[in-house]
Specification:
Length: about 210
C-alpha cells in the first residue's frame, strides 16, 4: 500500500475511532471481512487498486461497474462486483484526492464512514441538534443524490459533525463548516446554512466559520 493508500486508510480508520468511537479492525474481524481501497481514475475511466489483495482478473471484473464520483462505500461488495470467492468491504476514493491535505480529506472520509455504518445498521445516540441538522442535510440534496443519502445516513453525518466540533478534530469548531466540507457543494443545491444548529460555545462566539 503506497503513501496515498496509507493516508486514506489511516484517515478512514481515524474517522471511525475519533468520531464514532469504533474500531475498523474489530468491525472487520467480527464479520470476517477484508477491506479494500480502490482508486477512481476519472481521466482514464478506470478503477485502480490502492489497498487490497486482489487479482488482475478480479480488477477487470470490478471495472465492469465503473462509476465516476468523488468517493464511495460498499459493504459486502462481493455481492455487487461478482466476486463470489470474496468477503470484502470496499472504499472507493477518487485519485484527485492525492493532492489534498489530511484536513481536506477527513470530512470526505467521515462522509463515507457514515455510509459504512449506515450499511452495517450501526446507529449512535443522537441529540436534538443531530436530529435538527439531519433534516437540513436530507433536504439539501438534488434529486439524484437524495436517492443515495437516506435519513439514517443523514443522522450519522450530523452526529459526526457535532462530534468533530465538540472534540475540535482538525481544529473544527463549527458544525456547519464541517458539513460544508463533508458534502460536495455541487450535490447540495438546497443547502440552508443559516438553519444549522451549532454547539452553544460556537453560537456564543458569533463566528460560525471560525476554522476557515
Amino acid at each position: 500500500m503506497g503513501s496515498f493508500g496509507e493516508r486514506v486508510y489511516r484517515l478512514f480508520e481515524n474517522a471511525l475511532t475519533q468520531v464514532f468511537d469504533l474500531n475498523l479492525t474489530t468491525i472487520l474481524e467480527d464479520r470476517e471481512r477484508e477491506f479494500w481501497i480502490i482508486g477512481i481514475d476519472s481521466g482514464n475511466q478506470r478503477l485502480t487498486p490502492i489497498c487490497g489483495n486482489f487479482s488482475q482478473t478480479e480488477l477487470e471484473e470490478i471495472n465492469k461497474v465503473f462509476h465516476d464520483s468523488e468517493a464511495g462505500m460498499c459493504v459486502d461488495a462481493q455481492n455487487h462486483l461478482c466476486l463470489p470467492d470474496r468477503k470484502v468491504d470496499v472504499l472507493l476514493v477518487n485519485l484527485r484526492l492525492i493532492s489534498v491535505t489530511d484536513r481536506e480529506m477527513f470530512p470526505l472520509l467521515s462522509h463515507e464512514a457514515s455510509h459504512y455504518l449506515e450499511q452495517l445498521h450501526i446507529r449512535m445516540n443522537y441529540t436534538e441538534i443531530d436530529c435538527q441538522n439531519a433534516e437540513i442535510i436530507e433536504d439539501c440534496f438534488d434529486i439524484y443524490n437524495r436517492r443515495l443519502h437516506f435519513p439514517d445516513w443523514c443522522l450519522l453525518l450530523a452526529f459526526a459533525a457535532r462530534r468533530v466540533a465538540e472534540r475540535k478534530i482538525f481544529e473544527y469548531q463549527s458544525i456547519r463548516t464541517f458539513l460544508e466540507d463533508a458534502i460536495p457543494e455541487s450535490t447540495r443545491p438546497e443547502w440552508r446554512p443559516g438553519e444549522i444548529s451549532e454547539l452553544k460555545s460556537a453560537r456564543a462566539s458569533g463566528e460560525p466559520r471560525t476554522d476557515d
